[in-house]
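Hey,
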Amino acid sequence: MLRCVGVFAAWFSLALGGCGANVGPVDSGQVSDAGALEVCDGQTLAGLASAKTISEACKSELQAYLPAPFDDFDGRLVVLGRETHDDGSIRLFVAGVDAVGSPLSNDALATATVAPRAGAVAGDVHVAVGVTPFAKLPEDVLSLEMVNDYSASMSVPDLKVVQHVQDDLLSALPPIYEGEVTLFSSAVRVKQAFTADHASLLAGVECDEAFDRELTALYDGMGNGLQSLTSRARPARVLMVSTDGLENASVAFKKSDILQRVAEDHVFVVMLGALFADFDELRTLAGPNGVYFYTPLYANLREQVSKLVTALSHGAAIDIPADTATQGPLVLDIAGQSVDVEND
């Protein structure tokens, strides 16, 4: 279920001026009255944002009033996890895309170097590092927690798009992962506990029309998923969350709980949002090291997220030797993309 609680000022500000938005019939003189605009057979935007369900026809009409698809993954090199060895050496698990959204190739990854962060250590020497593609790693590297919104505003076609996105990821990744599937609406349920069995995970992400679909306990869904994910021993841990609206039903977790655990346990977060999902909320929940994707309609999400799926499937382990790793904060550079490497 969606709600409108002071979100329209920020949301329509984005729709009118930010992120290459598709403004549609809304103009800057209408921002204060945006919630009163009538769409979908006389229903207002404010009314739709608090509606329990929205028809597919109405969602199509709403597209003209919603921000254009946007994500913050282009030109990014991201760290999915890390492990520090007894000798002080570090192994990072990374993936990335170039400025136009093309995943970094094996050839690009092979150029990886590290250097002291500006001002941290004297000198500017780039040190070559070891690079091992994900496809050549052992089968105990990555834990993937998939947390899916099953509130009433998520239509069956929406849920099937999420299924296809996760099918794509599970099928594209080399066999280095285990996964878990958690569904949430007002309540939270683990549909498939952590397993490395591919067939079981594909069954776990399959659209479940029997799940009781009511409100949006987003924080409870994420909090339960994070508790399970951070109990896993694998060095790379990824939380993928899909939602189409705003938090309105959690009782066990607050946003601050989510942000604290993500930061303390170095979880890589992927937020997938659509319809009335708020940009700022997606960005905040993803954290400074995660990524988020927004599209007005879930129908367009699979294509948009395909670059992330491909990038993750072509990731690599980066081995930084102890004599370099112990010098202080570093910068990892791969084909012009860079990311900070913090000390433990």
